[in-house]
Write a sequence for this structure.
């Protein structure tokens, strides 16, 4: 309950901040986008992890206003970077959407308004949702995902491979990118079963014309295996941990 009060106040007092983690092309090593990840600087408790407060925000419904703030702030930042770095016109911003947000009936209108306000083309926005969010809301998901797609917004399946779901949604719903959960990457260089699972996901994505991002790329050995499998993109501590906007701009400059 205290956390709920604090979350509400935190939103008013602008205690939230976005960090950004680069998503890198494994072919060219270039940064092709960022995943926005929320951080909370609590006045007494210091930095509170989203793993701790996102579940509370979900339960209390506060994830809705927090989520709108995340979308607006991430789009505002992307727009600023495109002006600052004209060579990065195709930079894409990925944003996590939780179940509560995904089932907001005004999601499409609100996103349309945010894109207009921040002057971000729909093609530059990617929404990350987990398999379970789609499967638990299959009916809403169908309408919503097709509406988002018709705007030109891209959709990523986050933590792919960890949910209880049917592969049928891959052809029933318009999805552009599979993000392979980091639990499949962490031993890819020493565990042949992990290697085979990742190989299969990369092939599945290619056969369906989808992009693929390996999450949790931490070592050069991980990278070498992923390149051998022709995995398109990667994200992880090897490239950069999530960083604040100033540090992210430095990464773009390099
Ligand atoms: O950044 P970190 O690894 O600490 O994030 C922990 C969890 O919080 C991850 O599962 C991530 O998806 C989630 N998360 C981070 N930022 C956001 C956000 O803006 N919205 C939602 N819904 N989840 C987020
Ligand atoms: O659930 P989601 O994939 O949205 O969450 C991303 C989370 O993964 C963030 O909390 C981020 O800090 C974390 N993360 C990003 N890169 C790595 C990595 O290379 N290794 C590990 N262990 N965690 C990572
Ligand atoms: Mn994510
Ligand atoms: Na993930």
């Amino acid at each position: 309950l205290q956390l709920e009060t604090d979350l509400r106040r935190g939103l008013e007092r602008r205690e939230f901040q976005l960090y950004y983690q680069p998503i890198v092309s494994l072919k060219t090593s270039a940064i092709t986008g960022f995943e926005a990840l929320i951080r909370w600087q609590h006045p007494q408790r210091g930095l509170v992890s989203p793993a701790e407060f996102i579940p509370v925000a979900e339960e209390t419904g506060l994830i809705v206003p927090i989520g709108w703030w995340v979308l607006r702030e991430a789009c505002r930042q992307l727009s600023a970077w495109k002006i600052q770095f004209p060579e990065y016109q195709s930079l894409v911003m990925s944003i996590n959407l939780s179940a509560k947000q995904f089932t907001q009936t005004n999601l499409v209108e609100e996103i349309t308004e945010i894109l207009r306000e921040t002057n971000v083309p729909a093609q530059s926005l990617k929404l990350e949702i987990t398999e379970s969010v789609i499967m638990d809301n299959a009916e809403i998901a169908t309408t919503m995902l097709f509406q988002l797609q018709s705007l030109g917004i891209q959709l990523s399946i986050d933590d792919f491979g960890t949910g209880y779901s049917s592969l049928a949604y891959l052809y029933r719903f318009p999805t552009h990118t599979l993000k392979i959960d980091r639990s499949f990457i962490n031993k890819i260089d020493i565990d042949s079963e992990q290697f085979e699972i990742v190989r299969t996901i990369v092939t599945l994505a290619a056969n369906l014309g989808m992009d693929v991002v390996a999450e949790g790329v931490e070592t050069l050995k991980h990278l070498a295996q992923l390149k051998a499998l022709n995995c398109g993109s990667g994200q992880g501590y090897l490239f950069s941990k999530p960083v604040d906007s100033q540090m992210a701009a430095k990464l773009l400059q390099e």
Notes: Residues 244 and 250 are 10 Å apart (CA to CA). Strands lie at 16-25, 31-42, 46-48, 92-96, 125-130, 154-160, 177-180, 211-214, 233-234. The mean pLDDT is 95. The radius of gyration is 18 Å.
